[in-house]
Amino acid sequence: EAGSFLRSIGGELGDPLDVAIAPDGNLLVSDAIGKQVVRFTLEGEPLPPLVSVETPFGMTVVDGVAYVCEH
Question: Residue 55 burial (CB < 10 Å; 0-12/13-18/19+)?
Fold first, then answer.
């Protein structure tokens, strides 16, 4: 059975590669073209970027800490 569309998020993403839920409950999205990890509220509102990195390839959150892999 197919899922249903829930909502879109604001802001512009060049090449989103990975998503994670931050310890504060916000959505983290790694953007390879934007060279940063961007944050959004769960309602889809953009927040200031978490970090700028050359090529954020992937990420995970462990024990309240966000780890970002660079490619």
Answer: middle
Write out the two tokens for 54. 């050359």
Distance CA 32, CA 23 (A): 22
Contact 26, 9 (CB under 8 A): no
* ∠ CA 32-33-37, rounded to 5°: 50
The single residue listed with the structure tokens 């990420």 is: 59
Per-residue pLDDT of the chain (71 residues; tens, 9 = 90+): 688 887 777 678 888 899 999 989 999 999 999 999 999 998 889 999 988 998 888 899 999 898 999 87
